[in-house]
Amino acid sequence: MITLGEYNTLKILRETDPGLYLGDEEGNDILLPHKYKPANYSLEDELEVFVYLDNEERPIATTLKPYLTINTFGYLHCSDVNKYGAFMDWGVEKHLFVPFREQARPMKVGNWYIVYMYLDELTKRLVGSSKTNNFVSNDDVTLERYDEINVLVTHITEKGANVIINGKHKGLIYNEDIFEDIRSGDTFVAYVKKVRHDNKIDVVLQPPGYKSIEPNANFILDELKAAGGFIGLHDKSDPEAIKNELGMSKKSFKKAIGTLYKDKQIIIKDDGIELVE
After folding, report:
1. Fewer CB within 10 Å: C terminus or N terminus of the chain?
2. For residues 92 and 88, what is the distance between their CA atoms, to the nearest angstrom?
3. Which run of H or of E encompasses 115?
4. Euclidean distance between CA atoms 11 and 5, whole angstroms
């Protein structure tokens, strides 16, 4: 079966003027235009291609890598808006259509949006939606504390960074746990800090608890070396000064320098911390 909106591994059946025809084991075939064919190939070779609909709504194969696949989220640039809706650049020739009814707020050309792509059952076309809450749910959460997860940052609020977890749950990274610049559209590996009684999920960028001490300690060692062996911060320093200089909370800083001190890698002085030579 050739699946729309996904990568398919298909066999080269024949070569024609428009391009290569690829097929599956069920006898279905699809065109891969000449501009996408590999430099070297033979009949019966298998190719991994992405399948979508061309400008005439016909299934077509491409070796281009889209920014998202069916039933997933992506961070897309709005290339055009007309009386029907918005059109997003998603890495293939034909732009992804987002109807007005699927826009969380009116889209504007040049802006970037978190978009979910799905198959419209009525038209059988791939369409996008920026109403991301319709495609995530925390009703059935099986995640546990310390679990490693993949997150996509949707937007930043006064509390912190809202994220989509593993493409299906909502979560939040509180400001106090953000030690680096993050923006909407960023994706990275993170960790479950806590699953609350109402299934809200707190997320951190480093393993929670004692597991986060080691990365922070290593980070401070690197900063000490870069600063010539001394940083004018200590366990009684102002929390804002610590966050501004090192990008971490005072609590994390104190834990990290405590570890370094116990390992005899630093000296804690009245005016700062010093690297032991």
Report:
1. C
2. 10
3. strand 112-120
4. 18
Q: Which of 83, 100, 133 is the last residue of a domain?
A: 133
Sign of CA dihedral 137, 191, 179, 202: positive
119-140 mean pLDDT? 96
* CA dihedral sign of residues 136, 141, 142, 144: positive
**Predicted local distance difference test score (pLDDT) of residue 20:** 97
Contact between 61 and 80 under an 8 Å Cβ cutoff? The reply is no
d(CA 235, CA 255): 9
Give 3-state DSSP helix, strand, coil % of the chain, rounded to 5: 20, 40, 40
pLDDT digits (tens, 9 = 90+) for 33-80: 999 999 999 999 999 999 999 999 999 999 999 999 999 999 999 999
Could you tell me if residue 27 is inside a domain?
yes
Q: How much is the pTM?
A: 0.76
R_g (Cα) of the chain, nearest Å:
25
Structural domain range at position 216: 210-275
pLDDT of residue 145: 87
What is the predicted pLDDT for the residue at 208? 67
- Residue range 186-213, pLDDT digits in tens: 999 999 999 999 999 999 988 766 555 5
Q: CA torsion, points 102, 105, 109, 114, in degrees to nearest 10?
A: -70
159 neighbors 168 (Cβ within 8 angstroms): no
